Structures are given as C-alpha cells and as structure tokens.
Amino acid sequence: MHLNLRKPELGFTLIELLVAIAILAIIAVMGWRGLDSIIRARVTLNRELDQSRSAQISFVQLENDCAHLVSETLLPGRENLRAFANQLILIRTVYEENQATRLQVVGYRMVDGIFSRRESLPTRDLQILDGDWENAITGRDNMPVVKLQKDISLFEMRTWNPDENTWRIAGTDVAVTPSNAGKTRLGSKPVPRKTGLEVSLQIRDQAFPLLKIFLLGEA
C-alpha cells in the first residue's frame, strides 16, 4: 500500500492577491495625494517669494527716487511730487560722474494689476522738464515702462503735509484735470509742502497690504 505524501503546492489564493492589490492601490493614492500637496505648496511658496522679491524691488526703487526728490528751492513755485488716483509723479535729481546735476520726471502707476515705473531723460532745461511733467500728469508721455510688480489690486498713497501736521489722501492736494495739469506747478497758487509719502500695495490673494513710509528729499 502506497501513501500519497506529495506536499501541497505553495502560492497565493485569488482573494489574497486581490487584497494585496487593493492595499497597494490605497498606498499609491495616499502617496499621490501627499506628493500633490507638496507640489501645490511649493508652487504657492514660489509665487509668494516672487511677489515678495518684486515688492522689495519696488519699495527700494521708490525709496531711492523719494530720497533724491528735487528740493523746493531749486524749483520754486513748481510741484516736485504729485500723488493722485493710481499714479505718483515726481521730479528727482540725477547725479552722474563728470556730469552736472540734472533733473528727470519719474512716474509710477498701477494699470490692470501691473505696477510700473517710467522715467524721462535727465535735463537741465526747465522748459523740457515742464513738458515732461505735464505729459506724465496727463498720460501723454512716451517714457519707457518698466514693470515692477504684477497681481496688484490696490495702489494707494498719502502725503505728509508739515504745515497742517497731517496726512493727505492722494488726490486731495490738487484737483487734477486736463485744464489745470500745467498751471498748478507754475506758481498760480501755493504748492503744499510734502515731506513724507506713504505707499500701500495690495497683492491679490494676500490678506493684508504692504505698507511703507518714505521721507522725501533726504539724500
């Protein structure tokens, strides 16, 4: 009499394979979700870093222009800075080696979410300077535009008037119309002194605006 002592075949049943596949699928989904979260967080962080760098560049450039704002003694009876609506126009001094001091008009504005800067050619001719100023105020200038920041939803300014010891909201110093764009800077009425500028930039998707105060003409 012979006994059948053959060992049972080793392996996995169909149910075991299905369970293993289901577990691997769950692990893969969890891993994909974790990786997707990491990628999204990285994209958001990179965007915020880019916005912070752009804002820093904008404020550094603003600080430099404000520090070199032309003194009122060099341009008596003329405005050297005007903040209105979504625009800031100022006249700054330009110092270059082996060159006489010259003046140029600088303009900042926010259009369609883009915060930009433009500047005229430096000059010592007051007639040319007056023309550059009026064209910048009325938006008829052809100065090259440098984009500083995107995704801006709000650009607000206030100027400090030492005679009144208070801040003025941009636009309340002088009513800007095409008819008076060139008259107010020519001494037809006293020009309010300004010694400080407060700038507020609101970046989209950020809870609070970026705010900085600049002293005027401290270079």
Brief summary:
The protein has 219 residues and is an alpha+beta fold.
Secondary structure topology:
Blueprint: H1 14-67, E1 81-84, E2 87-94, E3 102-111, E4 114-119, H2 126-138, E5 145-149, E6 152-161, E7 166-169, E8 196-203, E9 210-215
Antiparallel strand pairs: 1-2, 2-3, 3-4, 4-5, 6-7, 6-8, 8-9
Description:
This protein is an alpha+beta fold and 219 residues long. It has one domain (50-215). The chain has 2 helices and 9 strands. A hairpin with a 2-residue loop joins β3 (102-111) and β4 (114-119). The longest helix is centred in the first third of the chain and has 54 residues, at 14-67. The radius of gyration is 31 Å and the shape is elongated. The N and C termini lie far apart (114 Å).
Widest β-sheet, arrangement of strands: 1-2-3-4-5
Return Rg in Å.
31 Å
Which word captures the global form?
A: elongated
C-alpha end-to-end distance: 114 Å
Helical residues, percent: 25-40%
Which H/E pattern describes the elements?
HEEEEHEEEEE
Beta-strand portion reads 25-35%
Structural class: alpha+beta
- Quantity of strands, as a count: 9
SS element count, helices: 2
Largest sheet: 5 strands, antiparallel
How many separate structural domains? 1
Mean pLDDT reading: 81
Low-pLDDT residue intervals, each spanning 5 or more residues = 175-188
Key structural traits:
219 residues; alpha+beta; 5-stranded antiparallel sheet; 4-stranded antiparallel sheet; 28% strand
